[in-house]
Write a structure and sequence with these properties.
The protein is of the alpha+beta class and 309 residues long. The chain is 26% helix and 18% strand. A hairpin with a 2-residue loop joins strand 2 and strand 3. The longest helix is centred in the middle third of the chain and has 26 residues. The chain is globular and about 55 Å long.
């Protein structure tokens, strides 16, 4: 049970990772420069403030591998349109691994807006640093589970299929259609994340993210300068045999201002088979395995096609 979100300083873990090239910001234990986090949010605001005709120049479709811009209400959660717009980026596949879209509908090239000059270099720099930070946190989780620090490396997540979304949430007062049968306007409906770990960078002056507690109540997640909101994903729940649970969350922008958030999803290898670790089965369940094994790529394809297909 919980009624607030704990704040964890990962600084000691970052400092001990042994990478001398890792740029450390003394103001943030995670080591990502605060000005870079803000700059990524700023270019998101700049992109979403453009006319829709400009944004649609990088429109997402099945032919783009579901990468690119999606209009307000195009993303669907549990059958209901979400009241946000976004640009989706996935790790690009090597042609030697996957050659045909018929074999994998997520094959495609990421689309970058040329109308916002700093967008691509900023987001690519940010991505590189977030991948390394998430990998470091996963090493800490591996040790906390009682496994080796490289538990999530190699065939499990040594070549992670990352996802990054730049999301814009208009104020609810600006919206005319209700997306929730209960009469609530939802920027993104309640859901759990697909993969291992999510790091959320969000506007600091708007509280819109909510987490559902075990007793069924939603609590607000107030933005805190210098922090990421960290979500556990479905694949980590399976690998830990339920010891770590992915948490339902949603977004409701009740503020009068437009909100931008940039969640980064650190995922397993695309073709990784995910099943409970043998060393956790006895300690986390009366019966050996509580969770059915899945192939991560099949899981994420199913999720994406249900959202947009």
């Amino acid at each position: 049970m919980f009624d607030s979100i704990p704040i964890i300083d990962v600084g000691p873990l970052v400092r001990k990772k042994g990478d001398e090239d890792f740029r450390e910001d003394p103001e943030s234990g995670h080591g990502i420069p605060l000005e870079l986090c803000q700059a990524v949010l700023d270019v998101g605001h700049e992109f979403f403030s453009q006319p829709e005709s400009q944004k649609l120049r990088i429109a997402m479709s099945s032919s783009t591998g579901f990468r690119g811009y999606q209009k307000l209400g195009e993303n669907v959660t549990k059958g209901l349109p979400d009241q946000h717009e976004a640009i989706d980026y996935f790790k690009e596949f090597e042609s030697t691994k996957v050659a045909l879209r018929s074999e994998n509908p997520l094959v495609g090239l990421n689309q970058w807006p040329d109308s916002v000059s700093k967008f691509r270099p900023l987001v690519q720099e940010y991505l590189e640093m977030l991948i390394e930070l998430a990998r470091t946190i996963m090493r800490g989780i591996a040790l906390a589970l009682g496994g080796p620090k490289d538990l999530f490396e190699g065939e499990r997540a040594g070549d992670p299929f990352w996802i990054l979304r730049v999301i814009g949430y208009p104020p609810i007062s600006n919206l005319s259609c209700l997306s929730n049968p209960n009469g609530e306007e939802v920027g993104c409906g309640d859901h759990t994340d697909y993969g291992l770990l999510t790091l959320v960078n969000q506007d600091l002056d708007i509280t819109a993210l909510q987490v559902k507690t075990q007793d069924g109540k939603y609590i607000w997640v107030d933005p805190i300068p210098g922090t990421f909101v960290v979500n556990i994903g479905d694949m980590l729940t399976i690998w830990t045999n339920g010891l770590y649970q992915s948490t339902l969350h949603r977004v409701m922008n009740n503020d009068s201002k437009y909100r931008v958030s940039v969640p980064f999803f650190y995922e397993p290898n695309f073709d990784a088979r995910v099943e409970p670790f043998s060393f956790l089965q006895d300690s986390t369940a009366a019966e050996s395995k509580r969770y059915t094994p899945v192939v991560y790529g099949d899981h994420v394809i199913n999720k994406v096609l249900n959202n947009f297909g």
